[in-house]
Write a structure and sequence with these properties.
- Keywords: ATP-binding, Nucleotide-binding.
- A six-stranded mixed beta sheet has the order 6-7-8-3-9-10, sandwiched between helices. The chain has a four-stranded antiparallel beta sheet with strand order 2-1-4-5.
- It has 246 residues and is an alpha/beta fold.
- The chain has a domain of 167 residues: 3-Layer(aba) Sandwich (Rossmann fold).
Length: 246
Amino acid sequence: MENVVIKTDKLTKRFGDFIAANEITFEVKKGEIFGFLGANGAGKTTAMRMLCGLSMPSSGTATIAGFNVYKQTEDIKRNIGYMSQKFSLYEDLTVLENIRFFGGIYGLSNRELKSKGEELVEQLGLQKEAKKLVQALPLGWKQKLSFSVAVLHQPKIVFLDEPTGGVDPVTRRQFWDLIYEASAKGITIFVTTHYMDEAEYCDRLSIMVDGKIEALDSPANLKKQFKAASMDDVFYQLARGAKRSD
């Protein structure tokens, strides 16, 4: 249990008569790259909001980085990072201003902000762009910077919500190199994506259909169970209501 950083048991979210997340149960280990897949409306975002301490569950239990989702939401927020395709950085702030702003939110001291900021700019090769507005950066660089800012405070878990939407395949692959580096440092990666080739990069995958987890295993095992050549095929079969062949 020491290596389990996310644990849910029958975690459920209701909105009136509608059940957005229906008794989802799973565990994620330290340093694991865990893919959370599902079609639009499957319940992914609702589940992620509960795990981030942003939405109170209707029932069930969950601990995130050892903290209870009902009683310790502020502790959860201090121990996680978050990045989404829709909102990650302030476009009207410079690269360094974004780093300092989000680093401050994550609780870094002024000394840490200065040293980590300089280190991050150098690591990403953004020395010449450090004082430029983020809106001037290409999308791929924005996404890399967003991810780096999300793990600046060395969180136990980083939640990535469709992080590579709209970027080219080469940049997407470079982005995943950053994910591997963070995972190697012991940071757990919880990622949603609609790119099935990216699903292959995960250690394990959970696939939600209509609010329920219908499959959970490594990409290789899922393809074997569903007699599929690709994760696209696994996803398609699940969407049609197919059952695995154990």
